Amino acid sequence: MKRAHEAREPRIRIVGDLHVGSMWGLWPPNFSYAGQPYPQNPWQVYLWQAWERGWKTLPRPDVLVLNGDLIDGSQPRAGGAGTVSPELDLQEEALLQVLAPVRAGKVFVTMGTAYHEPHRLSTVARLVGAQEVAGRHVLPECKLRVRNPEVRIVVRHHPDGGNALYTGTILEREAVKAIRAWAARMLDERHDVIVVSHVHLVGWEYTPDNVLVVITPTWCAQSEQSMVRRRYTWLPRVGWVDLVVRGPGAAGVVVEPYLVEPPLKEREVPWVEL
């Protein structure tokens, strides 16, 4: 327990890309909808165990940001293939059960892609107690200002365009564009920390301009389609990222990732002996 005179160290947890409804995403146990059961498959069991373990064993965050693509959506381009069910109401109900173990001081919800989240999840956001900001429960970006020590953190789902396969490129690009926008007075205040999701990878970098850029991982395993098309380049990292504020500015923020091994072995094609 912290003593009264000890410095406060706010913990901010960013969790994104749950893709609830995907055959390879998070899915709650013992789920049924309209009287029909939808059991977990082996890798959903694995993901769920890791999800529960993280919430039970790691420190409770002061702030939780649910950073987009929380459901998988109906997958219209694939005709619903790869989903437990393409029904959005079912996926949203499953999402509420996925979020049942969550414990946090304040919760914020940001927008994901329109392809995965056409409803924008405003009902789900209200039901999980998401903070209302400027009349909205689902935000295009979440802007957090920590006082004493002073840190400004911006969390949004999408990186600012470009190649999604090289985390270094994303990190450097985000920092450069943010600094240029600030210099051109296109931002209301300088952004000390920028957090993005969407690409199912993880990484962070403290730039020479004193900006911390973070990419958060996913809770969706590699799909069979990705194994066919991008076997070695699209290997998702599973988990979340905590930011612990211990001092002012980007340099005072410590990144603490919670990472688990992706459940690949359950789906690996077996070797054939010749």
Please outline the major beta sheet.
Answer: 6 strands, mixed
Alpha-beta content class: alpha/beta
Which architecture does the CATH hierarchy give at level 2? 4-Layer Sandwich
| Number of DSSP strand runs | 13
Assembly form of the protein: single chain
Q: Which percent bin holds the helix content? A: 10-25%
Mean pLDDT: 85
- Separation of the first and last Cα atoms: 61 Å
Explained architecture:
The protein is of the alpha/beta class and 274 residues long. The protein has a single domain, classed as Metallo-dependent phosphatases (Purple Acid Phosphatase, chain A, domain 2). 20% of the residues lie in helices and 22% in strands. The chain is built from five helices and 13 strands. It has helices at residues 42-57, 88-98, 122-127, 167-183, 224-229, and strands at 11-15, 32-33, 36-37, 63-67, 106-110, 138-139, 142-146, 151-155, 193-196, 203-206, 212-215, 238-245, 253-260. The strands form three sheets. Strands 6-5-4-1-12-13 form a six-stranded mixed β-sheet, covered by helices on one side. Helix 3 (122-127) links the parallel strand 5 and strand 6. The longest helix has 17 residues, at 167-183. It starts with 10 loop residues before the first strand and ends in a 14-residue tail after the last strand.
